[in-house]
Specification:
Helices cover 35% and strands 17% of the residues. The protein contains 4 helices and 4 strands, in the order ββααβααβ. The longest helix is centred in the last third of the chain and has 20 residues. The protein has one domain. It starts with a strand and ends with a strand. The chain has a 4-stranded antiparallel beta sheet, with helices on both faces. The chain is an alpha+beta fold.
C-alpha cells in the first residue's frame, strides 16, 4: 500500500488584508485523524496533485507555519519530505483529481477536502489558504 498522506489546512485568518499573506500566525486544521485517507485512492490523488502542481518537488515547510503543524509532522517525516500548496495553486489545474469519483467513502472524503479548501479560500483568499502535507 502506498504511503498515507498526513494533511493540514492552514488559514491566514490573522493577517490584515493589506499585509502580505501569512505575515501573522495562521490557524491550522488537522485532517490527520478526521479523514480516512489511508487508502490507495487517497494516496494516489495526493501524489498526482504533488506531481502536477509543483513537478514533484518537495518544498519543505512554508516560511511561516504553525507550531502545531511542526509538532504533527515531527517524528513522522523529515522537513525535506514536507510540501505545501496554496489554494490558488491547487485551483489552476485539476488534472490530478479523478473524474470518475463515485460515491464511496474515500471519494466523498476527497471531494469534501477540496470543496472545503475552495470554501475557505472564498472567505480569506486563495493566496491565504494552503494545504501542508507529507507521505508517511
Amino acid at each position: 500500500m502506498p504511503p498515507t498522506p498526513i494533511i493540514v489546512l492552514e488559514i491566514d485568518d490573522n493577517s490584515p488584508l493589506d499585509a502580505s499573506p501569512f505575515t501573522c500566525d495562521p490557524s491550522m486544521w488537522s485532517l490527520k485523524h478526521d479523514l480516512n485517507l489511508a487508502t490507495r485512492t487517497g494516496a494516489e490523488v495526493f501524489r498526482r496533485l504533488h506531481d502536477v502542481a509543483d513537478a514533484g518537488r518537495f518544498r519543505g515547510y512554508p516560511e511561516r507555519t504553525t507550531r502545531e503543524t511542526f509538532e504533527l509532522f515531527d517524528g513522522f517525516v523529515d522537513a525535506s519530505e514536507v510540501t505545501w500548496l496554496s489554494a490558488a495553486e491547487i485551483d489552476r489545474d485539476r488534472s490530478w483529481m479523478p473524474t470518475d469519483l463515485g460515491h464511496g467513502e474515500i471519494h466523498r472524503t476527497l471531494k469534501a477536502v477540496f470543496e472545503t479548501i475552495e470554501v475557505v479560500a472564498k472567505h480569506w483568499g486563495s493566496d491565504r489558504v494552503r494545504i501542508v502535507f507529507a507521505f508517511v
